[in-house]
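Model the whole thing, not chain by chain.
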Amino acid sequence: MSTMIEFRNICKYYEMGDETVKAADDISMKIEKGEFVAIVGQSGSGKSTCMNIIGCLDTQTSGEYFLDGRDVGSMSKNELASIRNEKIGFIFQQYNLLPKLNVLENVEVPLMYAGVHRGERRKRALETLESVGLSDKLKHRPNELSGGQQQRVSIARALAGKPAVILADEPTGALDSKTGKEVLAMLFEMNAHGNTVVLITHDNGIASQIPRIIRLEDGKVVYDGAPGEEKHNEHI
Amino acid sequence: MNIFETFSLAIKNILSSKMRTFLTMLGIIIGISAVIVITGLGNGMETYMRDSFAELGTNLLQVNIQGRGSARNVSIDQMYEIVQKYPKYFEYLSPSVTVNATKRIGTETITSATTGVSEDYIYIKAYKIAQGRNFEYMDIVDRKKVCIIGEYINTTYYGGKALGDSIRIDAEKLTIIGIAEQKKDEMKEGGTDDFIFIPYTTAARLSRTRVRNYVVSAPNEDLMAESKSILENALYKIFEDEDAYTVLSMTEVLEMLNSMIGIVITILVIIAGISLVVGGIGIMNIMLVSVTERTREIGIRKALGAKERVILSQFVIEAATTSALGGVLGIVVGFLLSGVATKIVTALNSDPITVSPAVNSVVMAFAVSVGIGILFGYLPAKKAARLNPIDALRYE
Ligand SMILES: Nc1ncnc2c1ncn2[C@@H]1O[C@H](COP(=O)(O)OP(=O)(O)OP(=O)(O)O)[C@@H](O)[C@H]1O
Ligand SMILES: [Mg+2]
């Protein structure tokens, strides 16, 4: 297995007045291709910060980040945009669908930015929407869908471009437990198809099902391993 | 993402808030329609001038002899000599004596322009004799009390039977020996078909003046400048004083007037252009608001891989489309207003002036409105494109 994501002494600092918030404080870790990792930790521990750096949405204050062997820190804004488009599929807690576009158009957006032609784009969007069971809602606007359905649209959108890495920041946070389970099942399915999946979650029940857990505290990694072995010094 | 997709996205966004779009476009609509009406008015005025001058004769030279400061004078015979010496440059000559006396038909006073002329005058002015005859040499020499009238007088006062009847000018009674053919489709008082021509000798006696004005026609409009300078040179030889005479070429006057109209129109267009700038600022303002409102959308698009260039062109095209739409509406409004303006101007002027916007001003107006959209849309678009993806995503 080769390495998909590698952090080398990643720090992310925010200057708040004369105080410095260390959202990520010297984090080093490796995630291999095809792994399924859950990042857990208390609110404010730096989970989203890590996720945003992994997803090339944000840049670190110091340290090095390699994505699929490439040094992200040296990339231009345009290259970062391309990398996000090609390699990363985002699933957000608040879905982040475009409200003026219908379901089908929303799923087509990343393909459009990838330069996929109209016909092909439509075909692939339809396929992906079918795989998440939304073929009957193509012309609906996001606000006409339930939370679970919206999240499935955003999953379809993340999958449409066939990215290597799926990043999901609290994808079940706004959903009831049944719908949450469905979403989790989909993440497992993606992982089974060979995607590297990084999931942020608060939910112990969910975290315990994930093969590998990275626990953050005040921007530092305090645990990295299988969920079972952490149980004794537990405090989620 | 190709230009067509960006464009249809822009249309979608514009249509999603019609009222706002309309208000944004208002400045452009007003500016463009003003430009259309003003240039249309300019065209109409030019056409009107050209037509009026064509009626006066663009191949004509008006000669006025002041003789001021000079003991010399030029006789009518000398004028004929000059004209006959250069047949390539001159065709006809006629003295022209304006008669300001009271004209009466029976007991009714009429206002018809009355001019003393030679037998060549009707050729100079391109009238045709419809009934009766033209003046003859002897009418001129003998100062005969005869006249030729326009069809307007014939129809209005004589029921078409004027020939042989008479008109009183002051105490004199002049016999109508000829009636000119109708020139204009619609005749009216003071118009082309309302005139009285009498022999210039008769006119000079009636008005107790000497002949001071002449009209000379040239066979070729293109030689007007040469014809004019030949005439001026000949007159200079006689008077040796440039102030003793003036030679006016109608084409020259027309050109002068046209260039004056051109200047006025240009100034008006510039003033209207200011409202285009104001409209552009309106677009910039609303685009800035729109960028702020859509910060999250921009963040999402960036997360999904939109490059800066794509976001930039999305917003620029949206601004340009808004502005272009305003331009098209402005053109439509401009044309509607041109119709209204035609009615108003015609009513004020009593002669028809058609406010007719030219195709090139329409094309220009459209290009300018698109240009304004791009110019004023660029700054907000740049702002949108530069947004940091994570900041934009977090924006509430
Ligand atoms: N833009 C920012 N400016 C200043 N401080 C920030 C900013 N973003 C995050 N932080 C700080 O960085 C720390 C980590 O934030 P982060 O969003 O990564 O936490 P999190 O683990 O995702 O929390 P949650 O579970 O509540 O989402 C927090 O203390 C937060 O206040
Ligand atoms: Mg978070």
